[in-house]
Amino acid sequence: MLGPPGATQSAQGRTALPVTTGNPPSATFPWERPLTSTTPPTSTSLSLPAPVPYPFNEQGDGLGLHAAYADAREGAGMVRVRLPHGEPAWLATRYEDARFVLGDLRFSRAMALENDEPRYNAARSKPSILSMDPPDHTRLRTLVSRAFTRHQVEGLRPWVRELTSGLLDEMVAAGSPADLVENFALPLPVQVICELLGVPASDRGQFRVWSDALLSTTRLTEDELKENQDQLTGYLAGYVAERRADPRDDLMSGLIEARDAKDRLSEEELVSLCVAILVAGHETTASQIPNFVWTLLEQPEEWQRLVDDPELVPGAVEELMRYIPLGAGAAFPRYAKEDVEVGGVLVRRGEAVVVSLGSANRDPARFDEPETLRFDRPANQHLGFGHGVHHCLGAQLARMELQEALRALVTKVPGLRIAGEPEWKRQMLVRAPRVLPVGW
To answer: pLDDT per residue over 4-50, tens digit each?
Structure first.
């Protein structure tokens, strides 16, 4: 049995992985080199390596990347893993393998609905834009994409700049210490996406509950998860009905017109799209703002660089998106439509592959000094927003919001500091402080 570099053998002969600070391994497990082949196996009973428990750092606080990822990149690259629910999968840890799987149309998201997909909670995924392949995925994405073009997003920048400034003024006026998440990181993207979609930002407290439920791993039972999904779906279905009666200049009204006048999507697809836009439209940004602050204040010389030269902010946003492993692990499996070789491993037709974006973004084969923040990193083609047909639809909007949030923080509160222990999100698909006390 092979172990990763730096591992030790226990008395039981199992391989113990080295541990990084704040990210204990979820278990001690065997680590076997995956099967490699250049021709399709002829025997259905061909033995595959025993899958290892995944994710590696599910219970850890902080934003460190577990040592198992580096060991995998340096060794097999593709590793057999088993998530808490569903069938085993291959885990892609290297940049080139990850980009290949995400971009090659021989890998399908839609097939996940036909299989016992690898997943974090017991509930099965519902059909949505995230579980579609072209041409259905292209049809729905096209309907929404016009709201998230660079031109449209830049038109929103002055308003977002004013919004960030106002939120920080209110936080400072209320006095130190304050919770950066509740007072700044959460209301900013919620107000932006609600403005675009046409739903009231005053309901942001309930949006947070529903979003947490949809992104939960094991915190909720299957019945509790379904109840929250049904509540959010019902809420947005109600607003669809209101917009039908009183159309406005917002994204929801545009989607309703595409449904009613042009028959370009079904009613179920319409509501599902609104759910995806609302949750994805604020969760990543709301998580990355405190992640950015936590990371920069842990390296105060980097924070000071931005204070001294705010023009570095756009490059800093790209580098922080690369550096910070937002996900607790890999999700959204892709299924091979045919036998495909990935990184020297034969992925057979019908087998699932999950991709670790965090690991790919730290791959030294792609990035020089990947463990170092470099705001001037050239050609920073990170995978923080994904890749391929499922590349984040709102990437331009998220970039702009993160740029404006970070610029406002380093210019308006240059003396920002951590003022208490953060409360980290646990058993969630994303890692970030749920509460981040700050002073200035």
So the answer is: 333 333 333 323 333 333 333 333 333 433 333 333 333 233 467 78
Distance from C-alpha of 351 to C-alpha of 34, rounded to nearest angstrom: 14
CA nearest neighbour of 119 among 328, 304, 261: 328
* Torsion, CA 283, CA 289, CA 292, CA 296, rounded to 10: -160
Single-letter code of the amino acid located at 142 = T
Considering only CA atoms, which of 329, 376, 320, 360 is closest in space to residue 118? 329
The CB-side HSE value for 321 (13 A sphere, CA atoms) comes to: 26
Tens of pLDDT, residue by residue over 320-346, are 999 999 987 888 999 999 999 999 999
Q: Are 417 and 293 in contact (CB under 8 A)?
A: no
What parts of the chain have a pLDDT lower than 70?
A: 1-47, 57-60, 217-220
pLDDT of residue 218: 61
Place of tokens 């509950």: 209
Summarize the chain as % helix, strand, coil (round to 5): 45, 10, 40
CA 334 to chain centre: 16
Nearest to 295 by CA among 154, 102, 431: 431
In this prediction the pTM is 0.85
Query: Which residues lie below 8 Å from residue 44, measured CB to CB, with a gap of 6+?
Result: none
What domains, with CATH codes, occur in the chain?
Answer: 8-439 (1.10.630.10)
Token pair 């949809």 is found at 214
What is the DSSP secondary-structure string of 53-115? Answer: ES-TTTT--SSPPPHHHHHHHHTTSEEEEE-SBSS-EEEE-SHHHHHHHHH-TTEESGGGGGT
Evaluate the omega torsion of the peptide bond into residue 55 and state whether it is cis, within 30 degrees of 0.
Answer: yes
- The Cα–Cα gap between 111 and 176 comes to 51
Going by C-beta distance under 8 Å and a sequence separation of 6 or more, which residues neighbour residue 11?
none
Buried b vs exposed e over 348-384: b needs ≥16 C-beta within 10 Å? beebbbbbbbbbbbbbeebbeebeebbbebeebebbb
- Determine phi and psi for 416, rounding to 5 degrees: -60, 140
Contact residues for 217 (Cβ-Cβ < 8 A; gap 6+): 58, 84, 120, 121, 328, 427, 428, 429
